[in-house]
């Protein structure tokens, strides 16, 4: 379980795992890429990118392409991804102009 499954028809560069339905539709791959980008942005050098990613991931809005909407579209519970987000150290961000 949890092994990566390679798909020869998958040109997206995103590896599919057994925890999501296989094969993922193109729409689901897009949503996975959106969440993956936000998680990568948590470690991005520009502070404004980190702030934007954290706000998106912690948002309680439910609208198209919000974090909650993306989780629902993938059939995963927010809590499954939220544990990764909560392990990210909370910092007090200051803006530099």
What topology does this entry show?
Blueprint: E1 4-5, E2 16-17, H1 26-41, H2 47-58, H3 67-74, H4 78-87
Antiparallel strand pairs: 1-2
Residues in helix, %: 40-55%
- How many whole angstroms does the radius of gyration measure? 15 Å
- The total count of helices amounts to 4
Describe the strand arrangement of the main beta sheet, using strand numbers.
1-2
**Regions with little confidence, pLDDT below 50 for 5+ residues:** 1-18, 93-97
Mean pLDDT: 75
- Basic shape: globular
Beta-strand content estimate: under 5%
Q: Helix and strand string, N-terminal first?
A: EEHHHH
Q: What class would the helix/strand composition place it in?
A: mainly alpha
Distance between the termini: 47 Å
> How many β-strands, per DSSP?
2
For the largest beta-sheet, the strand count, sense and barrel status come to: 2 strands, antiparallel
Describe this structure in words.
The structure is a single chain. Helix 1 packs across helix 2 and helix 1 crosses helix 3. It contains four helices and two strands. It has a two-stranded antiparallel ribbon. With 97 residues, the protein is mainly α. The protein has a domain of 63 residues.
